[in-house]
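#lab-general

N.A. 3:47 PM
ok so I finally got the sequence cleaned up, no stray characters, all 395 residues accounted for. can someone with queue access submit it? mine expired

B.Y. 3:52 PM
send it over

N.A. 3:53 PM
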Amino acid sequence: MAGSLAVDDLDANLVLPPDVRNLTVLQVLPSLVTGGVERGTIEITQAIVEAGGSALVASAGGRLVAAIERAGGRHITLPLMRKDPYSIWRNAGLLATIVRAERVDIVHARSRAPAWSAWLACRRTGAHFVTTWHGTYGEGLPLKRRYNSVMARGERVIVASRFIDRLVGERHGVDPARIRLIPRGVDPAAFDPRAVSGERVMRQLRSWRIPEHGPVVMMPGRLTEWKGQGVLLEAIARMGRRDVYCVLVGAEQGQPRFSQRLVARAAELGVSERIRLAGECDDMPAALMAADVVVHASTQPEAFGRVVVEAQALGRPVIAADLGGPAETVEHGITGWHVPPGDPAILAEAIEAVLALPGETLGMVGAQARASVLEHYTVAAMQAATLQVYREVMG
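B.Y. 4:20 PM
back already:
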């Protein structure tokens, strides 16, 4: 949108003035279990601390609290997963108390229910309010747009893609001058093909019970229907090749029935012996390097799609649904390939076509994909741009 600023407009090696170095920033989100929102929170915690500020995080807790503390932040446990009006009002009071006691300058909200509490707390205390729009947020139910609107109330509204930039403007009429386009980033050192040993890759293949000769098609992402795992199963069944293994890497996150349906559908399609539900993975760089093709098949638009960029950083061949953030991060035929969402027949054809490409072609596409990530989608650039947003609201 005209007037919106992008991360590329900012210097990734930004030297921050003293007024930013002394900031206290409180990030709020529902929990710290797993996911892109949580990882972004950890990365910004690290950036705040390294810039000389104080980083607080409030959530209902989870296994990633330790990562917040390792990054130099301090976690405060609050029941921010609750969405009912009474809990939101009560949490607003608790957050206001924290803001006053800790002399918080900025509250950065990353999810809607905590954002309502944070917005109310900021109104009571005078702290600055910033939001990051992490999802597309459906509006099918009555009053849902009103509920979503809190994410558009930040003094700065951070969006991860041009798609979300347009959505925020069209649905909520946000002044483009308040929107900041800051794509999510990956660590190019961790997601570097040269840094992933063959031993790590083989360990992943053994854990998945994949024979060494079998091509691997992998889909990373939590197991939920709109992520498109079912579409990929249908595509695998349609393929002429019967030596291809499909690995679904991701947590159930409280949806065991969906994974059970996937297992049943794989049996119906006759591909059970070549499908692996791998669960969560502690070594995603090695998991992605073990894949001959990485597939993104979401049937609903994503705000960004970090796993796509992680695969590109490793130079892996990526096929992505042509909607949402991945439609921007994958340049068709240059850094990967697009397919229409929800079409298993075309996805099957695309997978077979990519598997048939010569190694030098795949190498060229992989090199161009990694170069694009290094230029546009690094954690360092995302951190610097977010700190610049903090400086703006204070200035």
